[in-house]
Amino acid sequence: MIEIVHRRRVWGAEPGRIEMIARSIATVALAGAAVLAPTAAFAETYPAPEGALTCSVTEVPVSTAFTCTGTSTDGEEAVLQATTSGEDAVIAGTVSSAVEDITSGSVTWDVTAPSEVGTIGFTLVIDGTAVDTATVNVVATSTSGGSGSLSTTGFENAGLAIGAGALLVAGAATVYIAARRRSAQSV
Fold it and tell me: Whose CA is closest to 136, among 75, 77, 66?
């Protein structure tokens, strides 16, 4: 006696297809979680202090004095922090200034450039929170003419671009592997 077994096929339910769909859904969910996870770090439950930092120059000869001005709300405490690529800059004798109270909306620091060529990065800290930065280049001799340096341009989200590229490569690898498995099962 010959027994005929009739398999009832549900659309899309061939062997291995359900597992592939489950893997694809899991991959999409994982990619979505990876993309959306950083947004929790950007959620603020408190208002950050507002402030701005400007320096009187963007390029200065070595050992030259200039000023940096921080602006914010009256009564807040401000500190100017300096980071140099060479010798320490002098801000009232230290790399971080003493705490200053903001009056009339601003506070000004007298800064002397170091005796070594390099870059000074300034950070304005208001009530313990860094709110703005400025950069001054220290050069060997003064630059003549012109009104300063050109504005800078560029892409500041390189980490985001690298993450997007990694997700793109992971997605392409998943499609490639799934296609190879599907072709191997159908042979």
Answer: 66
